[in-house]
Amino acid sequence: MEEFSAGSGLSGLADRAADGGGLTKEQLLLAGLTHSAPTAPLQLNRTANVTPGLRYRNLGKSGLRVSNIGLGTWPTFSPNVTEEQAEQIIVLAVESGINAFDLSEAHSGTRAEVELGRILTRRGWKRTTFIVTTKIYWSTRSEERGLSRKHIIESVKASLSRLQLSYIDVVIVHKADPMCPMEEVVRAMNYVINQGWVMYWGTARWSPVEIMEAYTNCRQFNCVTPIVEQAEYHLFCREKTELHMPELYNKIGVGLMAWSPISMGLSQSKDDSTIQLFSRASFRNKYSSFSWTEDETAAANKEGYGWMKERSQPAEESRKYSERIRELNSLAERLGCSLAQLTIAWTLKNESVQCLLLGASNVDQLYESIQALQLIPKLNVSMVQDIEKILENKPTRPPMVSTLALR
Q1: In this predicted model, what pLDDT tens digit does every residue of 84-95 receive, in sequence order?
Q2: Most buried by CB count within 10 Å: which residue of 43, 138, 258, 383?
Q3: Residue 197: closest CA among 230, 174, 147, 163
């Protein structure tokens, strides 16, 4: 198979285009897909003015347009990254065309909002050119437990103050609260939107049933409906995204903003990626409701991704996953890319993913991840089938059971 490359061939075509060589923009964007590849991961001339493969999509069935990759800032504002390094990452993202920045109090505390606010103020970018999503998070260590109207309004006001912004584009409610009436939650979100503090709202780690309940309450009480669900999606976590999110989008207009610990882990450390990749025992609990007895805020108090290592899986299961990783690595080498890049491209190949959140703790990691966009056209039907043969985990709906057959 022809290997994948995006190196000197693209820079040469860029020079020809600048000299009036008659190349179209589409030819320039696809130029990196027609040359033989080096053994190193995908690289692109950093002087190029375009980011091949970057697209802007409507988030859900709203009019808000976001780049198909966004910057998840939890590793960017981690304790081992300086403010100068964080600003370099933000600047690279903006210059590459990324306009979505996601913040998570669960992993980086309030530092992310404070530092991102300083960077945005210092850079002086127009407010219309970037989209900020932040979360309302609660746990046993929160000052306010649950999703009461009081907690929601106070959280939004505090985020606005830290970000130094007049409004937040999307506020994400992180985890549903079984102890709070859904009517109170949707009315509180409608209130902060009517005040002009927030433009849209969405959810994270909600089950399809909880999302439908929120939508039904919004319609009943004439409130603004959620436009997006943030869900985990990668090669080894597929059921919710592939079976349920398309249905939610078609029925009630809820879009998908995906996040992936796989690409995060692989971009952090080549030697330690296997541990980070297969240590999430929570893969099986995607739809479980959370109570106040569960506490995940310990993640915010530990450096980097060490908290992932504490979630171990059975040895036999880890062995099978490791074998699949080796096969995926071989496939990535055939394409001339890294495994992390293959993972990102495979995720974005799913049309249901309107925005994939990528993390980076340095500029090189983010740059390498962005180049995975050029790999998407290479994932044709044959290549996708090869990946499916390796994974053997394509989700399927259970067969319909007729009540007549029970008589």
Answers
A1: 999 999 999 999
A2: 138
A3: 163
